[in-house]
Amino acid sequence: MSLASSIRTIAVWEMNRSMTTMGRGVLPLAAGLLVLLVLVTAFAAESGIHMQDGIYRIGIDDPDVARIVDADTRFTVETVSGPALWNNRFAYDIVVIRGEVYAADTGKGRAALTALKRDYEGYVSRIAAGEPDLFAGYPLWIDLEYVKSEIDFLATQSGQQIGAPANARAPSVPSGPVEAVTLPPSTIPVHEEDLRQHLAGMEKTNPLSRYTGIVSSGSATDGLRTPSELSPPLPYDALILVFVFIFPLYFTSQFFMMSVMNERVGRAGEALLAAPVRPAAIIVGKAIPYFAIMLLVSAAITFFIGAPLTILLPLIPVILFFLSSALIIGMAARSFKELSFVSIFFSTLATSYLFFPTVFANTHVVSLISPLTLVILELQGEGFTAAGYVYSTALFFATSAVLFYAGTINFREERLFSEKSLTSRLMDFVAGAISRDRPHFSLFLLAAFTIPFVFMAQMMLLVLFFNIPMPLSLVLLTVSAAFIEEVAKSVGLYAVAGERPGFLTPKNLLVGAAAIGFGFLAGEKLLLFATLSQITESIFGSVLFLSLQVLWMPLLLHIAGVLITGTFLLAGGKRAYVPGLVVASVVHSLYNLHFLLGGLV
Amino acid sequence: MNARHIGIVAKKELLGLSAEKTIVFAILLQVFIAMFSSFLMVGLTAMYDPEALEGYSTATYGVGYAGADSALIDEFEKRDDLILHRMDLSPALAALRDRKIAAVVYVPDTPPDAEGPVAITLYLVQNDLQSSVINVKIKEVLQGYERELREVRADRMTAFPVGLNFPDAGDAESFYEFVYGLLIPLLVLLPAIVSAALIIDLITEEYQRQTLDTLLSTPITFTEMVAGKIAACFAIVPVQAGAWILLLELNGIAVANAVPILLHVSAAGLFLILLGAAIALHYRERTSAQFVFSTGLVVVFLLAMAIPYNPLNIVVRLAVGTAGPVHWLILLLVSGATALLAFAVAAYGRRVGKNSPTAVR
């Protein structure tokens, strides 16, 4: 059988099988649950969400005032006469006596006061909206315009926080060229009736509308609003996108993960392994249906929110990444509960990697490391360049490829059906990638292949430490970046030492360390030239990618790091691995700090 | 049913949990979330109540003012955190793009008592944290200006609202509702959901790995096996929820009525675990069972939240100390529903155990 036809056979077989295991009992019930979900949603929309009912106690002496908070279920209202209320005032969070509001001097009292203030504003607005002369009730209308501005990556260098203004008191003069703009008109281009309807509509919209409004916008009033409608823009649009796009993808990848796991349960996949097809064909064939479903789901969502289909392009590497990690988790988990916990843990990590950088969308180049940023840019109608695409998706493509490769070479009986613990299985996977005939060449390649993972982890740290004040963030970044690199470099040696105890001799250690050092440097260079030129220009970049300037120094450093860890392994066995790592990281950090300080002074 | 047998099965599952170090992953997960917690806290609060952001900023901001003179200038001068700069619109926008100023307002020369509205244009930087802060500050200024304009045009109005005098309470407290109304109920109910997912893994695994035969060849019966697993999953619910409450206390968030909260969480947790067990016994296969359960969970939660005095609301009321004795009634109702479900699951388990305990569907 040719590769293509065996892939097709397995893909069709996978489709049929998952349809039959899922199909019989699940589909009717799933359909029923879906109907129930629609009914319950309608019920919840009708009755409201009763999560915070009755958290505040309020005492009011006037039934007319009590009517203001009638609709707000957060308040338990008691209408009592003034003197009795005053004597008993400590039993309430707020008391209102003859139009004077008194709040308890606690966090709860202040929170209740805020809630009451908002209710009162809404009440005043309702009265004003009933005016026959609309512009007497609502004399002020605001047209909100947004201006794009990207800040310089170097802004954090001086220890300055993002977002804090420069000297606000000094008269400001723009530094760049001034673009002439036409003055906005003094009359509003919207009909009075439309505004009235808009005000009536504002009353009814539920709090969710501001979130659904992100993906589908457009209203008759052209963005005109009254001062009390002026709600701040959400700086976290991206979180909504995570739920809209990423969650269905993650959910579907679970089915693939389970399908891989099912092959291992009770050695069910033995027949498949015995078939005359290559492991690569099995994996690709099994993955293709899920890939297609995930793409279809994304396309359906894109179509539903009316976004351009180019949004799918940055989602493809995300889909591949989810599938490849689902493959590895499905192959490595020992039991169902381990599968559950590991996959939840992984999804949290992946989601934060996707989500946190996008907070800086529009403001910062660092945001581009997440493909979701491209989705946001596309939704804003700005689009992205080919270079931007490569920049933010290269790591995802590279890590998926490496994970798929690791899955393929380990898709064998002795690996799939062993009963070892999670970490030792993962070590087996790594050791499986090291050839017996040419171990040093394998170590070289392995070191090069760890680079995308190292970069991903370091990117995560970059985002994490971004908001910490300057000297501390730099030190933290230096130390943790060094630690990650040392782990990545020594993992091959550790795995091979575990699997082939006789391998780790002083001679092999020397040659292996050199191979790893070269491999690491080669991988680093390759990926850097492909993608990360923008970040390397900043000071954070120079911490992570210090080794760009001179070649032989970093090479020596990489080799020395592996030698330190390797020597600990050689002398003390597995238990000495962690101390070895720590020593190697300290040496590595000192080197980085020396160069960094030398460069700064 | 033999209580000792149930205990043996429960102990075996709890030991399995710690031996596989899956619990380590759960802890790692929580530590990881804690690492991002300040970020999440700011982020989630901002989503929940964007106006809370104002409290984060003590800085002063420059605002560009272009167009005609108006009473708005006096409104701005009342505040010491906003500095007004009079300038033309074009350089003002360029300065905004450079982030030299935080916002620009353009005011047309409409007189305050004109027939039509005063239409102001407000320029902000897009999708930026600072814009959210400045937005809240300027909103207050504009609301002041709106009040002034309303007074000018008061003779054209027909109805007047009841007047309320609010004290000047200083900083608004916006974390309160987020922490007590959302975070606490979610945190204490999270262990219940985790345990319900866990019971599905434990039961389906026995089927799919075909280990049931071995287990049933011992004196332990099928129903005892299921009961033992349920007991193990149930035991870790109050422990985890209690740990969350302790952690919150350590962070200075006082939770009132911890014991009644734990009782409510345990009852609701047992309900979800029984639901998971019933689904797992029916499907005997993890993919289908987890799929049906997670969809069903959304339905159950949405339904519960739409009903007044639901358990989540009761946890909130208990945590802030406004529950009153009615919560015992709710606890009784939830426990009753759980007991009914337990009888049903027990009957179903006995039937499965009698007919085809080990058959995989």
Fold and architecture overview:
The complex is a heterodimer of chains A (601) and B (361). Chain A has 23 helices and six strands. In chain A, the strands form two sheets. Chain A has a four-stranded mixed sheet. Chain A has a two-stranded antiparallel sheet with strand order 5-6. Chain A folds into four domains: 56-129, no CATH class; 141-153 and 190-234, no CATH class; 235-433, no CATH class; 437-601, no CATH class. In chain A, strand 1 (56-60), helix 2 and strand 2 form a beta-alpha-beta unit. The longest helix of chain A has 45 residues, at 3-47. Chain A has helices spanning 3-47, 63-66, 82-87, 107-129, 134-137, 192-204, 209-215, 237-264, 270-274, 279-304, 312-332, 336-355, 371-379, 386-409, 413-416, 422-432, 439-465, 470-499, 506-530, 533-536, 539-544, 552-572, 577-600; strands spanning 56-60, 75-79, 94-97, 100-103, 140-147, 224-225. Chain B has 361 residues and is of the alpha/beta class. Chain B folds into two domains: 3-47 and 174-355, no CATH class; 53-156, Periplasmic binding protein-like II (D-Maltodextrin-Binding Protein, domain 2), CATH 3.40.190. Chain B has 13 helices and four strands. A four-stranded mixed sheet of chain B has the order 2-1-3-4, with helices on both faces. In chain B, helix 9 packs antiparallel against helix 10. At the A-B interface, helix 1, strand 4, helix 4, helix 5 and strand 5 of A face helix 2, helix 3, strand 1, helix 5 and strand 4 of B. Strand 5 of chain A pairs parallel with strand 4 (118-125) of chain B.
